[in-house]
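Quick log. Single chain, no ligands specified.
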Amino acid sequence: MKRFSALLLLLVLGFAGLVSGCAGRPLSGRPEAVPPAYEVTDSSGRVVKLAQKPRRIVSLTLGTDEILLNLVTPDRIAALTYLADDDGISAVAGPARQVSARIRDNAEAVMALTPDLVIVADWMRPELSQTIRDA
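-> predicted structure:
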């Protein structure tokens, strides 16, 4: 019985040593890359990786303005479309007034706002998305 207990103890200690050895640094000695905090696949299949919650969001359509204002606080929105506070067509005209900047589908104007996330509809000009992506 003593022999069995000693063997069992030896096996447990050996297993513990193996498991703890796997939790250290990678074998290459280089730190592992930090995975993105957020990962989204857009309508074209591209994977968009964000390291943290977006703090400067630009929305280029009224539909995305309405969704965005129901998902995040206005202080995280850098700009909404020029239609956002039109009481005749916008369902979020009141809350939209808490965001000061308005924008149209102009890549230079978008980039001047230094956004960390731009929401562009898939029906908009493809070169607009590509220009923003390239910038």
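The chain has a mean pLDDT of 80.
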